[in-house]
Amino acid sequence: xxxxHYEALSAQARRVVDLARAEHAxxxxxxxxxxLVLGDRRFYPDxxxxxxxxxxLVDPNANRHVRFGAGGKGGGDFIGIFKTNSGFGxxxxxEIKTKRGFQSTDQKTREQLVTAFGGSYRVLRSIEDAEQWxxxxxxxxxxxxxxxxxxxxxxxxVRP
Length: 160
Prior knowledge:
- The protein is an alpha+beta fold.
- It has a single domain (3-155), classed as Trna Endonuclease, Chain: A, domain 1 (3-Layer(aba) Sandwich).
- The chain has six helices and six strands; from the N terminus they run H-H-H-E-E-E-E-E-H-E-H-H.
- It has helices spanning 3-8, 11-20, 27-38, 105-116, 127-141, 146-155, and strands at 47-51, 55-59, 64-68, 78-83, 89-96, 120-124.
- Helix 2 packs across helix 3.
- The protein is globular.
- Mean pLDDT is 87; it is low at 152-160.
């Protein structure tokens, strides 16, 4: 995260980023930091990334288990769309892990599925990993610069 972006954040948002950058930050803090940074349309107008809560609940009325979240068991912590230079959206998915964390078998299977269908999947361990991922997507897809992306998004404004 560059200095300009960090200084553009509110004091509360800076605290979230600082927690995410801590040496032994838990996945929850890393996720919050990534959500806050990549969700900033001033710097990432070509990214629509959303938290993806997955799990199982017990429906006591029907006496059954109900799964929720995109991708089911193994679904990434974030799912979204990256807008390419051609105007098409690229499906993106990310799994958040600590420095020592590792993917489960279900998460590895999910990664293989996403990439086999042309999407981009990444294990992210920091805000810097997330920003590097987006830079790589911009380079790989010949995507717009931030300035041109802002112009393009403003011309086709979509409110989440």
